[in-house]
Amino acid sequence: MGDHAYRLRQAEALFDGELDRLIVRFEGLLRVSRLLEERGASEAELDEHRLELERVSSQLGGIVRRKGNGRSAAA
After folding, report:
1. pLDDT digit string (tens) for 18-27?
2. Contacting residues for 47 by C-beta, under 8 A, at least 6 apart
């Protein structure tokens, strides 16, 4: 029964709205960063996007760690 509960938690993690939102945000930031780079944006502007990418990446990692431990994102 424990294995079944674990698989259910893993499936729930796949359908987590917060996770989806952060993935879409990360992908958008990455695309915009590439465009800015191609168009010769200043280092300051690129750094702002890099910092936001790092912040979102950290949030994603936190969700994955919590979900992997069987706790909800609200825990």
Report:
1. 888 999 999 9
2. none
